[in-house]
Write a structure and sequence with these properties.
327 residues, five-stranded mixed β-sheet, 16 helices, 57% helix
């Protein structure tokens, strides 16, 4: 099978109208009145994999479209309906060929969600949690996990075991990394529910917005998990080593690009390697980690989560200037 393209998307459907199937969701609660709406399609996915042919054929595709994808509007929300049938067949073939790993990761994601939810979403009010939806389903390589907004107020967190399996099988990521992804995205969901950092800010000011929300999520993922996490657990050992060696230079370059939204792709798109030859995948994460680490030396993490853009972004600029001066 031809190697699948490295596709990672960030949801940009801010405030879009999406018809979700309310009956598909079940409450996921950790104490009285502390619940989120949860849709876990792994059981249906496993049933599909059990009955899929090898190689996957048109009948399997039809069963997928009429079964898994038809359950909830989130597949359209994340853009799966834009994939051609030929590409769908190829990506469904990946599910069939790696079904044992996908089952393992799907189970791990569910366990980690149940373990981490109280710590991360415990900071949110019941009204804020009412707007959060968590979905676990294969999104045919569209994303590892993403958070976006829909219907003006819904915060939608999607986690895709198939893309996580791709990164484990093809890129050498670990199951520890999978756990960190879950905590990272839950931090995003909690943050977006508290403060209006909807995806509108990605379009309006992607260099500031991405640096702020990703920096908080990186450190939030470390704080939320049972065992200590390092930067290597988050972005991989080789990327972490490069970050430690060249991070301050990266910070200086990011500062120079800060006002140019067109540079966002270079810093935040997952292209497998940095086009500026630093050799690091998605170099923005390195800068975000260092900037937030600097800010947390002077500010409490929980206080930083509550800052609106007008207060947060000047702090970013100052932190970048200080990091750059140390280069």
């Amino acid at each position: 099978m031809r190697r699948l393209a490295h596709i990672v998307i960030a949801l940009v459907c801010s405030a879009c109208s999406v018809e979700f199937n309310e009956e598909a969701y079940t409450p996921l609660c950790w104490e009285r009145a502390s619940c989120v709406r949860y849709l876990n399609l792994m059981a249906a996915t496993e049933d599909w994999m059990d009955n899929a042919s090898a190689p996957v054929d048109a009948d399997d595709l039809q069963r997928w479209n009429q079964g898994i994808e038809s359950v909830d509007g989130v597949f359209g929300f994340i853009g799966v309906d834009e994939i051609s049938d030929d590409d769908k067949l190829e990506r469904l073939q990946f599910l069939k060929e790696h079904e044992n790993l996908i089952r393992e990761i799907g189970g791990l994601v569910d366990v980690e969600l149940r373990k981490i939810l109280p710590r991360v979403l415990g900071r949110n009010s019941s009204e804020q949690r009412e707007n959060i939806r968590v979905v676990v389903a294969p999104f045919l390589q569209m994303t590892n996990a993403s958070v976006g907004t829909a219907n003006d107020s819904d915060i939608v967190l999607v986690i895709a075991p198939d893309r996580l399996a791709f990164n484990v099988a093809e890129r050498g990521q670990s199951l520890t990394w999978v756990r960190t992804v879950v905590a990272h995205e839950l931090t995003h969901a909690s943050h977006f529910a508290m403060v209006p950092y909807s995806t509108t800010f990605r379009r309006a000011d992607p260099m500031h917005r991405s640096l702020w929300v990703e920096g908080l999520a990186l450190h939030g993922s470390i704080r939320a998990t049972d065992t200590p996490r390092s930067l290597a657990d988050i972005i991989g050992e080789s990327n972490a080593a490069i970050c430690e060696r060249t991070g301050r230079q990266l910070a200086a370059d990011y500062r120079n690009d800060m006002e140019d939204a067109d540079q966002s792709e270079i810093w935040w798109a997952d292209r497998g390697a940095d086009p500026r030859a630093y050799g690091i995948v998605t170099p923005g994460y390195c800068v975000a980690f260092l900037v937030m680490e600097s800010l947390m030396a002077q500010h409490d993490f929980e206080d930083l989560l509550l800052l609106p853009p007008a207060e947060a972004y000047p702090m970013l600029t100052l932190a970048l200037e200080q990091l750059s001066a140390l280069n």
